[in-house]
Design goal:
Elements lengths: L4 H37 L2 H21 L4 H16 L2
Helix pairs in contact: 1-2, 2-3
């Protein structure tokens, strides 16, 4: 166990950030999964609606610092390509 005040604070901050990141990571997986499910079903209208929500949320995560800009761009591009392939 840490003995310094600064290291104890760092441990508390790490726990807080880990919980926060776990929430957003799960949310991101569910968002992408909803788009993929619509694509697999062949439902283009539902896929477009889900993609629009996914696009907004992924870029929102970039502004919050959860994802890097390039990662978000890659995820959105791949989803967009899959939706257009229906």
């Amino acid at each position: 166990m840490a003995n310094h005040k600064s290291s104890l604070k760092r441990i508390r901050q790490t726990i807080t950030k880990t919980e926060r990141n776990r929430f957003y990571r799960t949310r991101l997986k569910n968002i992408v999964k909803s788009v993929r499910t619509a694509i697999d079903a062949g439902n283009k209208e539902e896929a477009l609606v889900s993609f629009k929500i996914a696009n907004q949320q992924i870029h929102k995560f970039v502004s919050k610092g959860i994802l890097k800009k390039e990662t978000a761009s890659r995820k959105v591009a791949r989803l967009h390509k899959a939706v257009n392939a229906i």
